Amino acid sequence: MHQAESFRRLWLYPMLALAAVAVVMFTGLYVVDVVATGGPAAPGGNGLGDYFLFDQDHITDAVSGLGAMVAAVLGIVVTVVSIVVQLSADRYTGVTSMFLRDRTNLLVMAYYVVTCVCGVWVSLSLRSEFVPRLTLVFMLLLTVVGLVMMAPYFGYVFRFLEPANIIRRIQRDATRTAEAGAQDGADLSEAQARSLAAMEELSDITSNSISGKDKIIASRAVDALKDLAVRYLDTKPRAKPAWFEIGAGIRGNPDFVAMDPESLRDLEQRKTWFEWKVMRQYLGIYNEALSQMRDINYLIAIDTRYIGEKAADAKDDELIGLVFRFMNSYMRSTLNAKDVRTAYNVLNQYRLLVESLLAKKRDADALTAVRYLKYYAMVSYDLKLSFVTETIAYDVGAVCQLAHELRSGVEDDLLALFLEIDRPDMEHAHDVALKGVRKAQVKLASYYLEAGADDRVTVILNDMASESRERLRAIRDELFRVESKDFWEIIDRGRNFEFMPEGQRRAMISFFGRFEGLDDGPAQPRPSMASRPA
To answer: pTM (2 decimals)?
Structure first.
């Protein structure tokens, strides 16, 4: 239904409109000539009917001109289309082959060629004693259709070559190719090669768009890679075993050639070469965008999370592990570049992935992810990126809170990891980072206290028992001053880390009251500068 409506809107209606305007104009003028201004009609003629008599003495010149007109239109179409396609091909790899494979383009070109050939034959079919009137009328109709089709076809070509449509077509064709190759097993090597080539085409489009500062096109290409991977996962359970082997058509690809043979075998055994290749493109794009277009880094983290959530729905344990590895690689690249803001946003997606896994009862996977987060909190600590360490602390605290709400079986393990994030015993400890971690722990303790989980409150209380009372008093006062949940700048998270609802704030005061020697009440609230993104 959608295709029929699209055909009517983009082709049929414009052609009918153009033809109708031409017919009305010509008929009106011709009628005026017949009735008033034209020369005498042939003896016994009937006005409009005379138009189709095709006088043998004069029709020859008209037919030759008709054939020449069609050839001229074909020349215009080929010239314009060639120039536009070449300009697009300079920017986007594979456009030319894609254009030549398109059925509409082939049909239109074939139509003009056939019409030209018919015009040649019609011009040679005239005799002094014979005029093929039906053939001439048919040739006239072919020429009219060719003329009125030219404008809609140019519109089709321009739409075809729009970057967004090119990206959508690459993704759609790659999905169909992968589906056919995985399920049918026919031309397996060719299907693998074409699927992999499509991924690299999308990666090239993204890289070129990043270089040209074209964020919209880069974003669509990144999303197309995600859509390719997510839709492939619907096909994967029905794929034949041979599909998961890295065939001869793709084994020579640079990404696979550079891998250790054992790693290649692992990809085959884990049945993840397709998803690995998609996210390998992501990693290359991520590193390229890190210093040029941070929004693409955020989008890659979002789309990788989507792949991880889809893997959880599909119960694909190996793919979940692969998603973790790539999320960790994003974090490593970001920390090496000391890009705190990007780390802040990527961690937001990492936390959302962990929370999704908890909600889907993937407790063991969530626990594994939190171990990774704890590791990167330590790495950030050593790199003196205190805000990243603090961000991870608040994120893990949020995960612990969700685990309690969901009655997760790994809640105690998550809490234990959470309390290991701070390392006050190190000589080069950064007071700001450790103070932020302690605030996150206080926030979680306040939640537990309000929820009636006194046993977990005690665990946090014991962990903080060695803190100086002066430091605890400063933490309490700073947290108490935070009254607004909204941060005063526009950020992706939008929420102030240190904000607590009123009930939790009261629980916080009660929590601090359990420390001996901490008798003073909290200072009066005032605007807080806490939780600022670096």
So the answer is: 0.81
